[in-house]
Specification:
119 residues, single chain, globular, alpha+beta, two-stranded antiparallel ribbon
């Protein structure tokens, strides 16, 4: 990896000696979950944690995206659930909306730098 002296935030990769399969592992598509777990703000925490417990595989990111009208309005992670348990939150009466992290900052996929094309 080298640094652009004119733009210190911009890096480039020397691809010489690197196998194409090694470069492909850095594609942003390898890190995007195209089928994330989602729920609505009115979901009770007891139901939200049940959804999270049913995640598809150990490699899946342990979080729930909170969506209203196809718009991302919040997020809850497994760490949030640990914090809620520690604070004795009532999972039977508390809704996701009451404790979700918001606002959620997002970027477009096209804004992600892909190592296949240089950083």
């Amino acid at each position: 990896m080298s640094f652009d002296k004119n733009n210190p935030d911009r890096h480039s990769i020397d691809k010489s000696g690197i196998d194409e399969s090694d470069i492909e592992q850095f594609s942003i598509d390898n890190y995007i979950d195209f089928s994330p777990l989602t729920t609505t703000p009115d979901t009770l925490l007891k139901n939200a944690i049940a959804l999270l417990a049913k995640k598809r595989s150990p490699q899946d990111v342990a979080c729930l995206l909170i969506v209203t009208n196809n718009k991302l309005v919040g997020i809850l992670t497994s760490s949030d659930f640990v914090r809620l348990v520690a604070s004795a939150t009532d999972f039977a009466t508390t809704t996701v909306e009451m404790v979700m992290n918001q606002p959620v900052k997002t970027i477009l996929r096209s804004q992600c730098h892909d190592f296949n094309n240089g950083v």
